[in-house]
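As agreed, record minuted below.
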Amino acid sequence: MFDMGFLELLVIGIIALIVLGPERLPKAARAVGLWVGKAKQGFESIKTEIDRELKVKELQEQLAQQKAELEQSSGLDSLKQDFEQAKNTIHSEANALQNDFDQEIEQHNASILKAENAVKQEQTELTQENQLDSPNKNKND
């Protein structure tokens, strides 16, 4: 704080002894010592608080810088875009395959229905022919 040598302190002590006298000098010295101690504590706490704030600010700047460097060096944004693009491509391909599959199923179902209808029609025709042939057989017998 103050740069005082031993000689300067001795001169101040002699002057204080002459001015205050031997009775009040110890009380005054204690009071001055307490004030100086409190002042030093106050200055020290302010200094400590300022140092902490500077360190916090420095760490925040360092963290922001490292984050920016990490994002740039790893290409995180481009990776995210690539993954998003790949995901979209996979979804579109899956949807296209699903549509193709659904169309094939519809075609097979339509073919099955046609075949069932053809079988039913054939059965109907056969039963009609059998019915027509049955009276003729009965007459011939």
Remarks:
- Residues 1-74 form one domain.
- The chain has two helices and no strands.
- The helical segments are 6-74, 76-140.
